[in-house]
Amino acid sequence: MDAKPTKTKFHFQISASSGVPIYRQIMDQIKIQIATQPWDPEQFLPSVRQIAEDLAINPMTVSKAYSLLEKEGVLEFDRGKGMRVKKISSSQKNFGERQKDVTPLLKEVIVKAHQLALKREDIFSLLEKLWREHPHEK
Amino acid sequence: MKNDIIDVKNVTKCFGSKKVLDDLSFQVGQGSVFGLLGKNGSGKTTLIKSILGLVRPQHGNITTLGDDPWCFQESTKEKIGYVPQMDSLYPWLRIKEMVEYTASFYSRWNSNLVNELIEDWGLNPQDRIGTLSVGESQKVSIILSLGHEPELLVFDEPVASLDPFARRQFLKTLIEIITRRPCTIFFSTHITSDLERITDHVALLHQGKIMFCGELDELKTRGNLNLEEIFLEMTR
């Protein structure tokens, strides 16, 4: 693995025969990749046309995913350049709002941990480990 | 509506005592990729032929590209590309000759596009139509429907005889077309296939009636089912 990834590439895996609309699949995958990969704030997402051709899907579907993510504040449109990941600084959202954003994800972790009979300490130490390893921390 | 490329209102078509289309209505908006789904014998081909003025319904009104299909103007016909279920190619001609023959009917013809597709799709322009497989003939029919760069593409079961590789090429070509210029695509199918990847609207035709017509995403979100499951569910 590259020790210093300078550019993040977005990868998509689309299943047309899934019950989940394709635009939803793209949105979810972009969100997950933004959350789990180091990305350069200057880096742009692939163009609508490029994704449509790569994945053999309708360009309108990609546009729909992009514009919904823009509305949600995940991406921002830079005129003439394209879509890029929106950097949310602490000034734009207050502490409470940011906590609220992350709460449902943490609740999911708790439910899953109970299902798998994992203890509180197990989850905490795993989170601690993942936090340290995350590229944003480096 | 002004932006509807196809507008079907209360259309009924009977063959003898058999009612094939039963008072059905729906619209196809400009720029959409519209899939008409139905079992064998559900009336898909009759509906397509009615939209193109090849069959005349007993009741109701159809407007295609703002024109009456039964007496289409020449200028309207130039805006339509059609691939019938059974190809209408001449077996004694070579692919190259079939292309030239078809091109002669149109005032505009994109030879570059056609030649590129013939090459990309692995066809030999010198081959006689009569020696081609069903799938290869279908490829030729599709290519011929694209040469005059129509605003409305109508395909009756376009992928039925194509292998998975050819289906991907077909999809890729359609995506290039809709990315490059405004184009509405209307196709029928009895199989839910990779065409689902580019379809934004669907209509389910069952026993001559439209069971559902709307956005594919809406349909999926509602039931959390894929198109095949929805199709089986609704036509049971």
Explain how this protein is built:
The complex is a heterodimer of chains A (138) and B (236). In chain A, helix 1 packs across helix 3 (59-71) and helix 2 crosses helix 3 (59-71). Chain A folds into 2 domains: 22-85, Winged helix-like DNA-binding domain superfamily/Winged helix DNA-binding domain (Arc Repressor Mutant, subunit A, Orthogonal Bundle), CATH 1.10.10.10; 95-137, no CATH class. Chain A has helices spanning 22-36, 48-55, 59-71, 95-115, 120-133, and strands at residues 75-78, 82-85. Chain A is mostly helical. The two termini of chain A are 16 Å apart. In chain A, a hairpin with a 3-residue loop joins strand 1 and strand 2. In chain B, strand 6, helix 6 (164-180) and strand 7 (184-189) form a beta-alpha-beta unit. Chain B is globular, with a radius of gyration of 18 Å. A 6-stranded mixed β-sheet of chain B has the order 5-6-7-3-8-9, with helices on both faces. Chain B has one domain (4-234): P-loop containing nucleotide triphosphate hydrolases (Rossmann fold). The interface between A and B is medium-sized, with 20 and 27 residues.
